[in-house]
Amino acid sequence: MSRPVERILNLLAFLLTAGRPVTADEIRHTVAGYDQQSDEAFRRTFERDKATLRRLGIPLEIRPVDRWSVEQGYVVPPDRYRMPDPDLNDEERAALWLAAQVVRIGGRPSGPDAVLKLGGARTTAGVEPLVVNLGEEPDRLGVLYEAAVDRRKVAFRYRGRDREVEPHGLGHSRGHWYLVGREDDEVRVFRVDRIENPNPVGPDNAFAPDPDLDVRAVVTAQPWEAGPEDEPTPVIVRFDPEVAWWASRRLGIDRQESPDGSLEVTLEVRHLEAFIGWVLSFGDQAEVVSPPEVRQAVVDRIRGVA
Amino acid sequence: MSERTARRLTRILSMLPWVISHPEATVDEVCERFGYTRRELLADLDLVFVCGLPGYGPGDLMVAYTEGDRVVVEMADYFAAAPRLSPSEALALLAAAMSVQAAGDAPDALVSATEKLTRALLPGAESVLAVDIDPEPELVTRLRRAARDGKVVEITYTSLSREETTTRQVEPWSVFVDLGNWYLSAFCRMAGAERVFRIDRIRSLRETDETFQPPAEPPPPRVRYTPSEDDVRAVITLHPPARWVVDYYPVEVLSDDGDRLRIVFSAADPMVAARLLLRLGPHAVLEEGEEVAAALSDLRNRLLARYRA
Fold first, then answer.
1. Checking DSSP bridges between strand B232-238 and strand B165-178, what pairing results, if any?
2. Which CATH number fits domain A2-81: 1.10.3470, 2.40.30, 1.10.10, 1.20.140?
3. Residue B119 and residue A86: Cβ atoms within 8 Å?
4. Predicted model pTM
5. In this complex, which of B12, B86, B90 lies closest to A55 when CB atoms are compared?
6. C-alpha closest to that of B179 among A157, A191, A114, A127
7. pLDDT tens digit string along A252-287?
């Protein structure tokens, strides 16, 4: 079992100290563990080892060996291998370790290995009985996250269409991960679980960060707040006493009920269809008070006209 | 094999820099910090001892052994720093730290750790990641406290599958978040069995002084839904804009051709299905379910009366 680990440690030590790109052929004849292999066996083993290094987060770069670019070689630049020291103390490492234990992404704890890289955690504390499930596979999120950090465009398929997007951020809200990006200069939001085959394309720093684009605000917006209409329509809704508590909780507002216990609020609606669906989820215990055209749209929807 | 190899390498490449920069490190401390048993640590040190630079002679190999209580690593300066976090590790760790904070109740050390980590990993791009969990700070904090102290609580609860509000005593076991919603796992004294409650449907909460003995091994916190025999069933076809329903409700999928998704929707009260259908409008079609059809027609009439239309 220890042979791949030994071989990869030897490979990494060589790549970190060579100070120049080295070819696969040189690796094969220099690094212990690859000798005495047939061409085909070497190729397979080397591919697997490269994949392991990349999976560990190690920057394995390919560069021309000479200035005529005839041959390509591998290098791990030491300054890119190590991470900027976040200067954590033991208490902070333990807090991160605990958070990584109770938060699950893709069904697994979210990164005890990452805490090892930061210096491990001395902790005897029991795990708090709080479990947060953030859904979603970490690998796909990792690709999008890296592209956002590097400010590199990503290409993917979404709802049957090929897209190329500037990824500005990732946000988690109401049980889903969202990619917030720009496409044709429009801000767009994509559900990450519906993004197929995301791949970075083009160079790093392909777009400037957008200080006005607030990822958190975009992903936490209510469904009717983001939508096709530029100018929001103020809509007044009344909720009956039985659902007033629930509506105010969903809206994240302090309860301002009238004496009879009902709740009347004004919502700024940009997406009428999403809004009507939401109001109707209260059944006949909520009513659009005004404007008349929105009342009519609700009635049409109830009748099945629209 | 590759999963095990990767994990073992990560631990070695993390442990070596720590020992190199902490020459006083003891075997016990290294084991505790990196989750090693003594035997595993010795095996990894032995392995490091036979690795190094080409030539692979005495001057080329790393030196790693234990001397009494101490761990000694030499000739390994190229491994003096731990490798950077991979993108998915960085994302997962930051997201974990942010969600525990969003959930409220985070220790100061986690707040400062998140700030330091964000600065180190996302210089100039701190806003790339945002994790939001619908906060229910007050109820969640009170329920967690009651669970920790083993105190019985009385909740007024409006069930999701039955349009019905009840007040009941429960023995709170744990609080958790699944796909964006907060849940309480508890023993319900009214039902005489374990139940999972959506915390946003808890209308009010009252702590009591009565204590209970929590189970030695509470079931793992997850959302369970077992349709009862009395449930009303409806077969519904969902069009693409209505597919989210399967993420939010416990449904059974009958078929999916990528465009039309046929599901069985079960609920104790047909009105729950009726309101959902009304909400989905043209994006969902009721295929089977007389009770639901009747409830839908009833709801339509009541709404039209309310709108005087």
1. unpaired
2. 1.10.10
3. yes
4. 0.73
5. B86
6. A191
7. 776 666 778 888 889 888 888 888 988 988 888 899
DSSP string, chain B: -HHHHHHHHHHHHHHHHHHHH-TT-BHHHHHHHHT--HHHHHHHHHHHHT-BSTT-STTTB-EEEEETTEEEEES-GGGSSPBPPPHHHHHHHHHHHHHHHHTS---HHHHHHHHHHHHHHSTT-GGGEEE-----HHHHHHHHHHHHHTEEEEEEEE-SSSS-EEEEEEEEEEEEEETTEEEEEEEETTTTEEEEEEGGGEEEEEEEEEE----SSPPP--------TT-EEEEEEE-GGGTTHHHHS-EEEEEE-SS-EEEEEEESSHHHHHHHHHHHGGGEEEEE-HHHHHHHHHHHHHHHHHTT-
Cα separation, A51 vs B6, in Å, equals: 10
B118-142 pLDDT, tens digit each: 888 887 677 778 777 665 557 887 8
Contacts of A91 (CB under 8 A, 6+ apart): B109
DSSP per-residue letters across B110-169: HHHHHHHHHHHHSTT-GGGEEE-----HHHHHHHHHHHHHTEEEEEEEE-SSSS-EEEEE
B278:A17 CB<8 A:
no
Q: What's the CATH code, domain B137-211?
A: 2.30.30
B302: which chain A residues are within 8 Å (Cβ-Cβ)?
Answer: 284
Torsion of CA B32, B219, A193, A50, to 10 degrees: 30
Beta carbons of B281 and A276 less than 8 Å apart: yes
A296 burial level (CB within 10 Å; 0-12, 13-18, 19+): middle
- Find the closest chain B residue to A84 by CA distance: B120
A301 to chain B: which residues are within 8 Å by CB? 278, 281
Domain boundaries, chain B: 2-79, 87-128, 137-211, 232-306
**Smallest Cα distance from B188 to chain A, Å:** 19
Residue of chain A whose Cα is closest to the Cα of B47: A6
Q: Which CATH number fits domain B2-79: 1.10.10, 1.20.1050, 1.10.510, 3.30.420?
A: 1.10.10
Task: Domain A138-220: give its CATH architecture.
Answer: Roll (2.30)
- State which CATH number among 3.30.9, 3.30.70, 3.40.50, 1.20.120 fits the domain covering B232-306: 3.30.70
Nearest residue on chain A to B164, judged by CA atoms?
A242
Domain boundaries, chain A: 2-81, 90-133, 138-220, 233-303
Q: Is the model more confident about A124 or about B266? A: B266
Judge if B2-79 and B137-211 fold alike in CATH terms: no
What's the complex ipTM? 0.77
> Residues A133-142: pLDDT tens digits?
777 677 788 8
